[in-house]
Design brief:
Layout: H1 3-23, H2 30-68, H3 71-78, H4 84-92, H5 95-98, H6 105-114, H7 119-131, H8 134-144, H9 146-170, H10 172-180, H11 189-192, H12 197-214, H13 224-231, H14 233-250, H15 256-272, H16 277-291, H17 297-328, H18 341-347, H19 353-360, H20 368-388, H21 396-405, H22 410-419, H23 425-435, H24 437-462
Helix pairs in contact: 2-6, 2-12, 2-16, 2-17, 4-7, 4-9, 6-7, 7-9, 8-9, 8-21, 9-22, 9-24, 12-14, 15-16, 17-23, 18-19, 20-22, 20-24, 21-22, 22-24, 23-24
Length: about 475
């Protein structure tokens, strides 16, 4: 069979599959209709809560990495020939600074990986970015117990290093070929001596500050240092924005008049609508995008790199968010996804009694073989479900509190905490577009397996 015939048969197969799906579509079922509504509710919530404040700053940072960070610098700290101790140490604790979700970290991961970072350190950064969040770990300890808080902190750091090293070893042949291949290194202004490293570092510091403080989550207790930071987060974000404007003026020679013109609408909206800071943030983002049209070749390259990441990542993210909402529901919805919450609760409980009650109505008689394999199953299911679900920063804690109150075991709770924040269905789709299916499946498999084993061990210790 020639290539043309195979292509036509593939098209025919897709058409037959689509016809079968539409023919048997349970469009009249209330559960199906509710799941569709939940899919769009989650997409709406995601667009409101994360696109403006999380993804847009992350896209700008990722674009800046591709333009203003020299390839030599990336190769020095994260490249295949870099010191393993240094590269994995930096990558494994990056989440304590960034505090991003599994989707926001993607443009940053793509930026350093495409710039020449080795697979291992890049994967360690990809995992640690959303997993090692200081506020989330503190909140976990206070809400779910100190054991889960400590286990999450230690497990997340260890996971990032171990998974990164395993990915490096599994694909060692490709990594060696990458290290041996001559790199075409762009010699930018900072490498010529015209822009010192401290200027580039200060510029990135201002952008990361905007990303971190604009997304600073509200703690459960309205007192203490975390709440004080949350209360002042927009003032701090504005100060970082001023710092970024100063960097553009002094280091990148953007005219001060253009900077004031770009920032003007954001300032007006902040004064006119102090209770709606997102409007001012959106205006500031639009002003920064407009500023790149008048800032010379470097800022044009920055805009092009940023737009390239947005085109690649956003469609996959939105598609993944819709799918996650359809299957598992939105944060506001209760038992509204196509998969009933009661089944999820029954599949991660300390005992299989709840599941047997759903299947047969009698959960009093638990077979010995089922009781024996139950810890393995519950931890595996929690890891897999967590890997598919989308957790915004800090939202995993109240969700897990509800699951624990419904009978979830401590082991599966830790497994979900270690797999969930670092992975999601939208996240996997984008990683696949960057790394390809083989590396993506290996990464996801390592996270799920390690989370499963860790949950089993933790559950046996705290029982």
């Amino acid at each position: 069979m020639n290539e043309e015939n195979r292509k036509e048969l593939k098209i025919l197969g897709w058409l037959i599959g689509l016809f079968a799906v539409l023919y048997y579509l349970p469009a009249e079922a209330p559960r199906f209709q509710g799941a569709l509504i939940e899919a769009f509710k989650l997409a709406k919530w995601y667009a409101r809560e994360h696109v403006l404040l999380c993804l847009i700053p992350a896209f700008f940072i990722a674009g800046a990495i591709g333009v203003f960070v020299s390839q030599n610098a990336v190769m020095k700290y994260f490249g295949p020939k870099a010191s393993k101790w240094l590269s994995y140490s930096v990558a494994s604790v990056s989440g304590t600074i960034l505090a991003v979700c599994s989707c926001t970290v993607l443009p940053l991961f793509g930026g350093i990986y495409m710039r020449g970072a080795g697979l291992g350190p890049a994967i360690a950064f990809l995992y640690s970015g959303p997993a090692i969040n200081v506020l989330a770990i503190v909140l976990t300890a206070r809400v779910l117990g100190w054991q889960l808080g400590v286990a999450r902190a230690v497990g997340a750091v260890a996971f990032s290093v171990v998974i990164g090293l395993l990915m490096h070893l599994i694909f060692l042949k490709e990594e060696r070929a990458k290290a041996a291949k001559p790199q075409e290194v762009y010699v930018g202004d900072d490498e010529k001596g015209e822009r010192p490293l401290w200027q580039v570092a200060l510029y990135f510091f201002s952008m990361v500050g905007i990303l971190v403080f604009a997304n600073w989550g509200k703690p459960m207790e309205q007192q203490g240092v975390w709440y004080a930071i949350y209360h002042a987060k927009w003032v701090v974000t504005a100060l970082f924005a001023v710092l970024m404007g100063a960097c553009l003026w002094r280091f990148f020679k953007v005219r001060l008049a253009w900077i004031f013109l770009a920032a003007g609408p954001a300032v007006v909206l902040a004064i006119a609508f102090p209770g709606y800071p997102v409007a001012s943030f959106a205006a500031g983002s639009a002003g920064l995008a407009g500023l790149t049209f008048f800032g010379g070749a470097e800022l044009k390259d920055w805009r092009d790199q940023t737009w390239g990441f947005a085109k690649q990542i956003l469609p996959l993210l939105f598609g993944g968010v819709l799918a996650a909402g359809f299957f598992l529901g939105s944060p506001e919805g209760k038992d509204a996804g196509i998969v009933p919450n009661i089944w999820i609760q029954a599949l991660v409980g300390d005992s299989p009694s709840a599941l047997l009650s759903l299947l047969s109505g009698d959960g009093s008689q638990v077979p010995a073989w089922l009781a024996l394999i139950w810890p393995v199953w519950t931890n595996f299911f929690a890891s897999l479900a967590g890997a598919l679900m989308y957790f915004a920063t800090l939202t995993e804690v109240p969700i897990l509190r509800g699951l624990l109150d419904s009978g979830m075991g401590q082991g599966p709770a830790l497994a979900l905490l270690l797999a969930g924040p670092a992975l999601s269905l939208p996240n996997m789709l984008v990683i696949n577009s960057i790394l390809g299916p083989k590396k993506t499946l290996t990464f996801v498999g390592l996270v799920v397996v390690m989370a499963t084993v860790t949950g089993i061990v933790f559950g046996a210790i705290v029982r």
